[in-house]
Amino acid sequence: STLMDSRACVKMAAAAWASGFLNALLHTANTFSIPLCQGNTVDQFFCEIPQILKLSCSDSYLREAGVTVVSVCLFFGCFIFIVLSYVQIFTAVLRIPSEQGQHKAFSMCLSHLAVVSLFVSTGLFAYLKPPSLSSPALDFVVAVLYVVVP
């Protein structure tokens, strides 16, 4: 309660919900506006955007670029916010006088940081890997690591 009051918590939650909704809305609108000429069967465990784009028969470069730019901006905004939050958390933890208290606080933070790192790294790999590395088996493993494990 000394680092964050209820108004700040509500603002952060609203920002997270709004950015997630905006990103989902853009991806959904883009996906439903793409004409599919190779059927609608996705050879994937999850219906991810790269697999849907493989079914498209039109050149959707401008759509992809626009959605990618907005997604990257949202991602970096969230990433910077998470980094700044962790800097504040770590400085507050380092001010705890007892070593046992610091250890307990760091162990809680590091588990969350590990999950966030796994989510971000597998998500980046899933969407930014070169097409030459794409195979159904690898896409499946990355999708499971990206969606299920975190």
UniProtKB/TrEMBL annotation:
Membrane-crossing residue ranges in chain numbering: 69-93, 105-127
Heme found in the keyword field: no
GO terms of molecular function: G protein-coupled receptor activity; olfactory receptor activity
CC per GO annotation: plasma membrane
Intracellular or extracellular location(s): Cell membrane
Main location (coarse class): membrane
Membrane topology: Multi-pass membrane protein
InterPro entries noted in UniProt: Olfact_rcpt, Olfactory_GPCR
Any matching Pfam family: 7tm_4
Keywords: Cell membrane, G-protein coupled receptor, Membrane, Olfaction, Receptor, Sensory transduction, Transducer, Transmembrane, Transmembrane helix
PANTHER family: OLFACTORY RECEPTOR (PTHR26452)
UniProt-recorded name of the protein: Olfactory receptor
Species the sequence originates in: Rhea americana (Greater rhea)
